[in-house]
Write a structure and sequence with these properties.
Elements: H1 10-26, E1 31-36, E2 41-46, H2 53-73, E3 81-85, E4 90-96, E5 100-106, H3 112-143, H4 156-163
Helix pairs in contact: 1-3
């Protein structure tokens, strides 16, 4: 389940966005964003101006991967929660449903305890949303509704003609 491709449906995207907004407000966070384990930004809310969210998403995924390597060396499956404390800002990172990464950036206006409490509740909601997406995706595949990749029909000859 963790490594399968997932289709993002509009309805679930709105649910995810609403949950991130709720977490942002309830945790009194600066920024909340969701990233897949490949480092692709799924959604973000908050004070993102001045933050390179694309780079931050990639670095977060790399951080999770590196920490996963450390966990394996110690005989753990993974470390599902990471926390980084800075002079002004703090970052709380958690793995949701073994498939996506939830990142909460907060400052002195909030506390680690509040963030952890709110993240725990949001994690349950987000896990449910992703489970629903998984079921929908499997149902669509069974019905033959999935669209083939637009690149599936491109051959090496087509690429050579394009760039040759």
């Amino acid at each position: 389940m963790a490594g399968t491709d997932l289709v993002m449906y509009e309805e679930e995207f709105h649910l995810i966005d609403a949950e991130l907004q709720r977490l942002h407000n309830q945790a009194n966070a600066k920024v909340v964003f969701l990233v897949d384990k490949n480092g692709q930004l799924i959604a973000s809310v908050g004070e993102t101006k001045g933050i390179d969210t694309t780079s931050l998403a990639s670095l977060t995924a790399g951080n999770i991967a590196a920490t996963g390597g450390m966990a394996k060396l110690l005989g753990e499956k993974e470390f599902s929660i990471l926390f980084h404390e800075g002079e002004k800002d703090n970052i709380h990172i958690s793995i949701i449903g073994q498939r996506v990464i939830l990142v909460v950036i907060f400052d002195q206006r909030s506390s680690l305890g509040l963030v952890r409490l709110r993240v725990k509740k949001s994690s349950e909601v987000l896990t449910g949303i992703f489970e629903t997406m998984q079921v929908k995706s499997e149902q669509d595949k069974a019905k033959g509704k999935t669209s083939a990749s637009p690149f599936a029909e491109i051959t090496d000859e087509d690429i050579d003609n394009l760039f040759g």
